[in-house]
Write a structure and sequence with these properties.
The complex is a heterodimer of chains A (809) and B (201). Chain A is of the alpha/beta class and 809 residues long. Chain A folds into four domains: 4-95, Ubiquitin-like (UB roll) (Roll), CATH 3.10.20; 283-355 and 499-676, 3-Layer(aba) Sandwich (Rossmann fold); 359-492, Dimethylsulfoxide Reductase, domain 2, CATH 3.40.228; 711-803, Barwin-like endoglucanases, CATH 2.40.40.20. In chain A, helix 4 crosses helix 5, helix 7 (296-314) crosses helix 20 and helix 8 crosses helix 21. Chain B has 201 residues and is α+β, with helices and mostly antiparallel strands. Chain B folds into two domains: 5-68, NADH-quinone oxidoreductase subunit E (Arc Repressor Mutant, subunit A); 75-170, 3-Layer(aba) Sandwich (Glutaredoxin), CATH 3.40.30. Chain B has a five-stranded mixed beta sheet. Classes of the chains: A alpha/beta (809), B alpha+beta (201). The interface between A and B is medium-sized, with 16 and 13 residues.
Chain lengths: 809, 201
Amino acid sequence: MSEMVKLTIDGKEVEVPAGELIIKAAQDHGTYIPRFCWHPRMEPVGMCRMCLVEVETPRGRGLVTACTQRVADGVLVDTKSDMVKKAQEGVLEFLLINHPLDCPVCDRGGECPLQDQTLSHGPGESRFVEEKRHFEKPIPISDLVMLDRERCILCARCTRFCDEISGDPLIEFIDRGNYTQVNTFPDEPFASYFSGNTVQICPVGALTATPYRFRARPWDLEAVESTCTMCSVGCRVSVQASQNQVLRLLAVDSEPVSHGWLCDKGRFGYEYLRSPARLAAPLVRGEDGELHEASWGDALATAASGIKDVIDRHGPSAVAGLGGARSTNEEAYAFGKLLRSVIGTGSLDARIGDAIDPVLLATGESRALIGDLETAKTVLVWGPDLKEELPVLYLRVRRAASALGATLIVIHPRSTGLDREATHVVRYRPGEGAALLDRLGKGEGDLAAVRAALDEGPVVAIIGRGGLTEAPGLASAVAAFVAGLPGASILPVARRGNVHGAIDMGVAPGLLPGRVAADQAGRDTLGEAWGTPVPAPGRDADGIIEGLADGSVRALIMLGTDPAADHPHRARATTAITAAEFVVSLDLFVTDSNRGADVILPVEAFSEVEGTVTNIEGRVQKVNRVAPGTGQSRPAVEVLGDLASRLGGSLGGPADALAKEIAEVAPAYREITWDGLAWGEGRDGLVAAAPDGGLPIPEPGELTGPPVAGMALHLGRVLYDAGTMVTAGPSLEKVMATPAAHLHPDDASRLGVTEGIAVTVKSRSGEAVIPAIIDSSLAPGTVYVPFNFGLDIGADPGVEVVPVTGGEP
Amino acid sequence: MTWSPATSERADAIVARYPERRSAVMPLLYLAMREEGRLTDEGMKEVGDRTGITAAQVLAAASFYTMYKREVGRHLVSVCRSISCHLLGSEAVLDAVADETGVPDGETALDGSLSVESVECIGACGGAPAIQVDYEMVEGMTPDSARALVRWLLDESPEVIRSDDLQGRFGGSPSFDPGPVDPVGAIGPFPAFGPYGTAAT
């Protein structure tokens, strides 16, 4: 507990922590001091002068900026004196000198701090009769952000955000002086993954987002608080809709998770919801072999009879379920219950061959929270490039390293977004992670300093799968190593939306709802609660795909999943699904995965259903409904329930009833109720934890395969891949990345490859022709190809890279 | 655009002088100007790469200072317009320069031969009105001597500009303390500040 000091604000004595800024102290005690440049999550600069207050000190009375002055014992602060009022009026008159006052045509009108504070603190008229500054209005500074320099009041919130918070200062004050303006470098757009935050914190209408420009007036928007489900970080958001369409997402500050920020994929990714390609009615495969629209009754009957037919002929274990990682906990729970209790199969998986061991995701051993990064002395990131996969977690780690002084260690096959902030950067060839871990444990050679840093606790280790050719067990081995260090805790991460929640709901063969192992005791307890037996663990995602291919699995139910795009061996997954006898898909779109399905059932998505989701740290948060789904879409919980009843079982009702059931049968979720999760000031969800300490970190299994022949392939993810959520929205589609083969300069010259020429990347599973990029950040002998761009190179560790003859640059 | 080995070496030496790489931005900008005769986008990107900051941050610094020129002729004629020079007729001197060259204040000749600008005090009040050519000073100017100066610049296109040479050819009464004589002279429209590592050797 920090030391407290007493001061007087507007005659009221208050007690605040020493070192607090006056503006913050006043706000915490109910006095709002007007401001433009100050933002609670950024360093104060005192640029806009709007927060002037009168302070009485032993040296006399005077005006100070409340955002730069720290409290001291016995200080008298007056925020409403005549002197303050005159100063604030003066500041606003200055700020408005060049402001165009085009509020009627400005997107910010109605929710504009400049408009609001002019009304409450402004002079009402200006003595400025000269010509205002003129700029071309508005200019695009990226595909997502427009800039109107005439409206800008030069508070530097946007430029400071980029410099301080996101670490990509691509906008700056240019032409400082009378014509100071925010701008980019010529031909270098503001291509930040976090650019939308600058739009949200802009206190005027200078920065506007192209997806929302001129779509609505703020007073026409209906808003609910919810949780972003684009990735598994779980940022708190306000989802705002008008006329049944989601029109924007705003970040809501949450101390434990997001600190008020969002990535652009989360912020602008909602457009897929109203994509014209979205399914509006159930589709059933007809006699002619084509998919036709059908009524819900017919579609459900066809789905149920197809599944029943497979059960009758081949037994329940011939049915398998994939998906749930894009669903709410209630949907995932219903999915698991349908498969295990109603159908009677133990083959189900929310991962699609791309995540780490589900037991590691659900482990109760030495678990860290995101907030532990605030006090960590050392942070280890051995897993994905956080900037590409879990962007807001990247911001939190970046803050730990850049603002809080933690020692950051990044271990990854190539350069990552965090390298600039890292004290130690270790690169390795995919496939050599186990050997590296061994050397790190011993602190050999150049790893001595890294090893020493890991002895400086508290250590927080973020552990995941660095690339898709990496042995999934490596993360378990790293976790076991870190958990053995004094004062260390682990944050095991997988990327996809609610994959952590789906695992917690038991959508994995070895796990039951509530982080319980699917052993005999666990199955008996759950079976008693469900009133049906719970089958023994069946196949995981890879097993299901193998089973489909060899005929031992005959029917597949997919819940919001796209293995043809997301499985590392996408061709293998596609072939397997095609071979399936009967496929039911609950989805928003027709994808490569369900194009051949027998029944496709359109379900409601994010912002259309109420429920809960669980983030990487196990924090359970609410998602809420603000708009209906497209056409005849229905909540997945209802669809699964109807399917269950047609198969002769029951799932237990709508989502709120299932939530109550989850609290009863899932030990880690015992304390978690929708009432307890209601959003509010300082109410940021609840962290699920197994009551008995939970599952231990799993055994890593086989880590070293046969030596890699040829080049080692690193398959990593990028934020804007060719996934449906990017391609189905016009705004993100514009920023979608293009795939390339990244080669170390030594390899490039050995292979005769120059920047930009076409190369063939060939593996046992397939090949792809893509342009080459020379990338000195790779370990020699490695080729990096971004994943999920529809390339058929599989995920075998060893590949061959051959320049295409006559490959044009 | 990559810099010549000599410039590159010089840049490395400058960067090495600072505890933080980004502190070298300003001297490197002079190097970038010297390398290409003016400050180009490529030059600023190069400076950004060498100092570990983004091109936008380099531009933010560069665009504040009028002496980092993105558009400039082979020679730069700066006519002082501050109080002493103004009182002693700098306006007529500027008019004469503009008239003789056909280049108005703040612009560059179409053929790129020279740029004309009026500037605030250049520290030669004792010898007002004063002009700088490529930042080399000449004092005690009149409209006629200014005409002769720019005509000489256009006709002769001298390789090196030296203050004492200018003063001898075109200058009038200099100030009592003209300051140290620059032994090197300017060889381009950018300052040849020795301490910044850009003086010709």
